[in-house]
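the two lines:
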Amino acid sequence: MAIKTIGKHCKGCGVCVTFCPKQVLGLDALGKITIVDETKCITCKQCEMRCPDYAIFVEKK
Amino acid sequence: MEKLIEKYYRPRLPHIWCPGCGNGIVTSSIIKAIDKLGLDQDKTVIVSGIGCSSRASGYLNFDTVHSLHGRALPVATGIKLADPELNVIVITGDGDGTAIGGNHFIHTARRNINLTVILFNNNIYGMTGGQYSPLTPTDSKATTAPYGTLERAFDIAELAKAAGATYVARGTAFHANMLVDVIAKGISHDGFSLIEAVTQCPIYFGRQNKKGDASAMLKTQRDNAVTVEAAKKLSPEQLEGKFKIGVLHQSEAPEYTKQYQGIIDRAQKGAK
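prediction for all of em together
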């Protein structure tokens, strides 16, 4: 899979981090979305579905 | 989703909504529903009023009207009557649609004109700083109710049903996929459709009422929402404090633009 994040869109609400069942995501020092461990991703797309700011997209390869 | 953004959004993101605001989730659900139905972008009109939710029309790449406060429905009615072939989708909020636009709301429902109304219910007037709206729950704090609201909130779904709407549904920002389905059904329905989209306002509603951050408010939606099917099996005590989601009401009634065409035909024939 490929996770794409758009820092410019992210406002750091943390919804994606909360609802990720595999702890793939985190927030960096600036409070923006960051990928902690992409290998754990199961492409459930919970983050993409609930991101209010269109800052994260998950593609199945 | 990325392709949908390229196709259906204007290139002006990021939007202005606060961090954690659910309006972005509801807007993407509307777009997914439009894409699912394959509506022609040039034959779809989005009309909105004024307020946080109504900002959505500015981000969407359709023919859009960002109308007056509370007056989205009269503008949409005019557009639909001028060209009944258009798909007219109205985006409104709880303050816009049920307070200043409350009268328009009940009468548009009564006429059963083929509009799809998506009412973003965040329980507060967010844009102006957190004043209470007709959908703010009793005893909630707001900047205009520092000791809590005394008024009882509308059940907007029941109001729409009583006013004559022929399709009434409710979804939440948490149940985003289900929201896509109920919006798609509402757009397909021939008549006035109301979809109440329960969304979170973590800044102006959540902060004043100690509801936690956006994630906590989404979890509250998850815990308090009961599907219509599941609600049938529960007792009134078990449903205390919960709200139903799904298609709440669907019926058939003559559609206004079709009846209006009948009047035009009769008048042109000279019949009385």
